[in-house]
Amino acid sequence: MGSQGTEPVLQSFLLVEKSKMKEIPRNLRKPSNILEKGEVAHLNGIDYFDPFLERSLEHPTTNGETLTHLLKACLGTGILAMPLAFQCSGLITGIFGTVFVSLVCTYCSYLLVKCAHTLYRRTKVSYMSYADVTEVAFANGPQWSRKFSSLTRQSVLWLLFVTYFGTCSVYTVIIASNFEQLFTHHMGYELNLRYFISILLIPLILLSYVPNLKYLAPVSMVANLLMAAGLGITFYYTLCDVPNISKRPAVGTLETFPTYFCLTVFAMEAIGVVMPLENNMKTPRDFLGLFGVLNIGMGGVTIVYIMLGFFGYLKYGETTKSSITLNLPTEDIAAQVAKICISLAVFCTYGLQFFVCLEITWTKVQKNFEKATVYHNYILRTVLVSLSVAIAVAVPTIGPFIGLIGAFCFSLLGIIMPVLIEFTTYWDNITVWMIVRNAVLIAVGLMALIFGTINSITDIITVYEPNATQTVNSTMNSTLIHSTTQ
C-alpha cells in the first residue's frame, strides 16, 4: 500500500532502509538534531524519546483524510460478494461470523501498529514500514528469531508487492468487464474485453502520477462517494419486495462455511495500507484507541458489510450471484448507474493499491542508484502501470491466480505475521492470555490459508478445464474477493 514528488510522503515502505535499517537493531540510528526536539530528550535524568514529536512530514494527513483512505481500502469490490458469503453461512451465522472476522482483522492491524509504536521508542526512529517492523521485531526478539530478521523482512516485501501488483492487474479487468457489459447492452454487439482493458492504460497512468498520499485523499473521497452511490442503488434493489426472513436459512452447512470464511476474510483484510496510513498521520496516536481511526473505520465497514450481505441474500436467495451487481436488472437505468459508479470507484481505488507497489520498487531503485531523481520516479510509475495493464491484456482470466496469491499472502500478512511480531516484540513479557489469544489467531490464519488456497485452486481448475462454460466476465466476478485488498 510511495515516495512521491521531491520529498517522500508515503514514507512507510522501506523508508528506514533508506537510512540503513539494518543498523537500527544495534541502536546506531541517531535522533533528530533539531534543537527544540532534542531538548525534550532528557527529562528528570531519564533519556526520553517521543517518536511522534520527532516525525517530520511535508504533507501529513489529518485524521479525516486517514479515515477516508482506510474506508476506501476496506470498501473494495469484495463487498459485492457478501450476499454470496451469507448464502454460504446463513443469515444469522453470517452476522456473527462477519463480526468475528472483523474483530480478527482489526485486532491484527492493532497489534502491528502497537508493536511499531513500541519499536519506535526502542530504536529511536519515528516511523517504520511493515517490513521494518518485522525485521526489527525479529532482530531484537528471542535468540531463535534473530537469524530470521532479514528473511522475514524480504518475505513481507515480496508478499506485499506480489499481492498488490496482482490486485492492480485484476482491477483493470474488473473495471473493463463492467464497461464491456454496458457497451454490449447499449450498442448491441460485443468487443473483445482486451480492447476495454487497453483503453484504461492512459487514465491509469495519469492517476498514478498523483504525487503523494496527501493529494490522493480527494481521489479516495471521490471513490468513497461513488461507491456509496453504487451501493445505495444496490441497497434500493435489495430492499424492494423483501421476502420474509423465515424463507432463508439462519444457519448454513459445514460444507459451505469455508467458502463464507474465505470470502469474508479476504474482503475485509487491508493490512497492507495500515502502516502507510499511520506513518503519514499528523497525529499518529489517534490511529489506535477505543475511538481511534482504526476502530471507527473498521466498525463502519463491518456494519455496511453485514447489511449488504444480509439483505442481498434475503432478497435473492439461492439465485444470489458472485457479485450482487449481477443480480441487478441490466435494462434499468438505475442499475446501469450503479455499475458505472462502482466501476469508477474501483478505478479511483487503483491509485491507493498502486502506491504500495511503487514505494517498494522506488526504494529499491534509490538504494541501488543514488542519482535517481523525480524524473526517474515518474518513469517507474509509467512502467509499473503499463506492466499491470499488459498482464491484464495478456491474461484476462488472471483473477483465480491472483486469488491463490491473495489467499496465501493475506492470511500470512494479515493474521499470522502480526501475531509473530507481537511474540518477538514482547518476548520477555509473554503471558498465558497472550499465548491463548494468539494461538486462536494463528488457527484462524491457517484456516484462511488452507481454505482460501483450496478455493482458489478449484477456481483455476474450473476456468481452465476443457468444458468450462464461464465467460471472462463471470470468472472475474466469481473471484473478486480473492483478488482485492480493498
Automatic annotation (TrEMBL):
InterPro entries: AA_transpt_TM. Its main location: membrane. GO terms for cellular component: vacuolar membrane. The keyword Transcription regulation does not apply. The chain crosses the membrane at residues 91-113, 156-179, 191-210, 215-237, 257-275, 287-313, 333-358, 378-395, 401-423, 435-454. Residues 60-457 form the Amino acid transporter transmembrane domain. It is found in: Membrane. Keywords: Membrane, Transmembrane, Transmembrane helix. It is a multi-pass membrane protein. This is Amino acid transporter transmembrane domain-containing protein. It comes from Acyrthosiphon pisum.
